[in-house]
Amino acid sequence: MVENVARLTPTPRMTPFIEVSGLEKRYDTRNGPINAIEKVSFSVSKGEFISIVGPSGCGKSTLMKMIGKLLQPTSGSIRFHGLPAGADSPDLGMVFQDAVLLPWRTVFQNVCLPIEVMGLERAKYERRARELIELVGLKGFENKYPSELSGGMQQRTSIARALVSDPSLLLMDEPFGALDALTRETMTQELQRIWMESKKTVLFITHSIPESVLLSDRVVVMSARPSKVQEIIDIDLPRPRQLTDTTSAAFGKYVSHIRGLLSATTEL
Ligand SMILES: Nc1ncnc2c1ncn2[C@@H]1O[C@H](COP(=O)(O)OP(=O)(O)OP(=O)(O)O)[C@@H](O)[C@H]1O
Ligand SMILES: [Mg+2]
After folding, report:
1. Most exposed residue of 41, 44, 101, 203, measured as fewest CB within 10 angstroms of its CB?
2. 226 preceded by cis ω (within 30°)?
3. Model confidence pLDDT, tens digit, residues 64-102
4. Whose CA is nearest to atom 1 of ligand 1?
5. Where are the domains of the chain?
C-alpha cells in the first residue's frame, strides 16, 4: 500500500452517473461455462475520466460491452442516473478494440455513420467530422477505404467516429493499442484536451499503466479471471497533465503501486 496514494474505497460522491452493482457475466461455450467477471461493483460520476486496467482476458471488454448495452449481464445491474425523461441510457460513443469499420464506406462515410443513424443535422456534424478527421491526422485520406489504411489509421478513424456526435459518455476499449508511440502520445494529450473542454464522462480501457495515470481521475484495477475489482485508485495530480509529468516522483508512485497490484494477480 502506498501511503496517501491509494485507497480501497472511492471518495463518497454525489449521485453517480453510472452505477455498476454486483455485475457478473458467464459465457456458455462448447467447452463449458466461462465466468468472465464476478461481482464487479463501482460507480462513475458525471464528467469523470475512469480507466480500467487488468490482465489480458480478465473481462474488461466484456464489462464495457455490458455498459454499452451490447451484452446482457448474467446477473447484477448497470444503472444510469440523471438522464432526460424517456432515456434509459446516455448518448454514447464507443471505440472498440478492433476498429470495426464498414469496408464499403470511405473514411469520411465511416466517421459520418452516427450522423445518419442518429438523424443529426447534416451540415453541422459533417463539418465536425472533417475537423475530427484532421485532428486524428487523417486529412487527405477522407476518400480512402479501410482496406487502404494501416491498422493505426483505421483505429484513428474509429476514434473520430466515436466523437462525431459529441456523446456525453465515451466508452474506449484500448483505443490507442494499434498506434505508433508518437501518435499514441499525441492522441493521449488530445483526448485529455477534449475531455477537459467538453466534460464528457469517459471509461477508458488500457494496458498502459502510465497512460491510465496520466489521463484518469480514478483507475479501476481488475484481478485475473473471474475478475473482481481489486482496488480503485484516486489519481490526485493537477491538470492538465503533460508527458513531462510522467517522470515526477508522485506519478511514479501511482505507476509502481498499480504495477504491483497487477503483477500480484498475473501469473508471469
Ligand atoms: N463471446 C465470447 N464467448 C465465449 N467466451 C468469451 C467471449 N468473449 C470473451 N470471452 C471470454 O471471456 C473472458 C474475458 O474476455 P474479454 O475479451 O472481456 O477480456 P479482456 O480483459 O478484454 O482481454 P484483453 O485485455 O486481452 O482484451 C476471456 O476468457 C474470453 O475467452
Ligand atoms: Mg479486451
Report:
1. 41
2. yes
3. 999 999 999 999 999 998 887 777 788 899 999 888 999
4. 27
5. 13-90+202-268
